[in-house]
Amino acid sequence: MTTIDLLPDATAMGPVMLKTAKLARLVHWYTTGAGLQHVAERPGAVELGVDGRTILVLEEAPDLRGPSPSDAGLFHTAILFPTQAALAAAVVRMSQIPGIQFAGTGDHHVSEAFYFADPDGNGVELYADRPRDRWEWANGHVHMTTEFIDPNGFVDEHLDRGAFGTSQVAPADARVGHVHLQVGDVPTARAFYVDALGFAETASLGGTALFVSAGGYHHHMAMNVWNSRGAGRRADTLGLGRVEITVPDADALGAARQRLAARGVAVADDGRSIRFDDPWANAITLTPFSLVE
């Protein structure tokens, strides 16, 4: 691929929108556990984030059904913490939620991660990256693995107990690090997210999972078929509403629009951002940095 075929190196993930039948319950979970704060509110919707910057948009949709585990849609939203200490604090906050759904841990070599499910069943990853100079690359792919992390040992080693006692909120530079989707098949995902949208492939697990990024990150997005092989276009359900990707400027936005249109993807352009669906009706928005609050 040439430079013009790729998303710019500075591409990043923006807010993720989730639809919920119980808005107050989900707001409480993400503020209490993940340490997010209210950023904005309007009838039927709350924006949560840090330092005035939105990470999650929660919209109330009481008439929608929940998704099936085998549907295309969200696998998890991954919130990136800047340090192991900040991640340890988030893990402790999560552990203090009664009935918390803990889904496991993963030392991925490039990062350390802890997995949960929110009260609606949406997957949530909390993670911190290891330094980039410790990532191992070969032939354009980054080495990632999944090894067990002992949660108690991690917290004992990294939690700043003094700071934790004075603040229960996520640090100002926490953000959406990546989004992992359920899709129907990997070749179609590659054709869309790499060939059309312009991410670079960074890892794959045979025909079961694909990892993609911009700028040499280990992955900004991933797609798997572990629960959803053969899934078609998803219905409008609770769970994932929209994934936002941020690009540096209008030129990058225009280049992406041209790539998508050339491959027959229907793109809605409101003059500020572009919106389109992937082949499974997962809604994606591309927005320049300057328009993301």
From TrEMBL:
GO molecular function annotation: dioxygenase activity; ferrous iron binding; lactoylglutathione lyase activity
Keyword entries, A-Z: Aromatic hydrocarbons catabolism, Dioxygenase, Iron, Metal-binding, Oxidoreductase
Record-linked InterPro entries: Glyas_Bleomycin-R_OHBP_Dase (IPR029068), Glyas_Fos-R_dOase_dom (IPR004360), Glyoxalase_1_CS (IPR018146), VOC_core (IPR037523), Xdiol_ring_cleave_dOase_1/2 (IPR000486)
Cofactors named for this entry: Fe(2+)
Domain VOC: 12-129, 175-293
Matching Pfam families: Glyoxalase
PANTHER family tied to this protein: CATECHOL-2,3-DIOXYGENASE (PTHR43279:SF1)
Assigned protein family: Belongs to the extradiol ring-cleavage dioxygenase family.
Protein name: Catechol 2,3-dioxygenase
Originating organism: Agrococcus jenensis
